[in-house]
Design brief:
By secondary structure, the protein is an alpha+beta fold. It is built from one helix and five strands; from the N terminus they run E-E-E-H-E-E. Strands 1, 2, 3, 4 and 5 form a five-stranded mixed sheet that branches. It is elongated, with a radius of gyration of 16 Å.
């Protein structure tokens, strides 16, 4: 699966877009370190594969958080990622 943060894919040409897809890591305490960005990306790749995509372009990450009013609660966050699943033109 090819991943691009732009509209283009290195070494390939987008034949047509399939559609925008999204995925996210699980909720976790904001103070807990982990490779949450990679977890979210792997879930995005799995979603793209469900649509038989060859690549994902315009990949963008953001951090979602939960605001609580209880001072004893642990702040939670997750990494969400979105992109456009695409089919690539086949080389002749």
């Amino acid at each position: 699966m090819r991943i691009s943060h732009t509209h283009e894919v290195e070494g390939g040409r987008v034949l047509y877009p399939i559609g925008r897809i999204e995925a996210a890591s699980g909720w976790h305490a904001s103070s807990v370190s982990g490779d949450w960005k990679n977890v979210a990306l792997q879930r995005l790749i799995a979603a793209a594969m469900d649509y038989d995509a060859d690549a994902i372009v315009d990949v963008d990450y953001k951090v979602d958080g939960v605001q609580t009013f209880d001072l004893s609660a642990i702040p939670l966050e997750r990494i969400s990622v979105s992109g456009v699943a695409v089919k690539l033109a086949r080389a002749a």
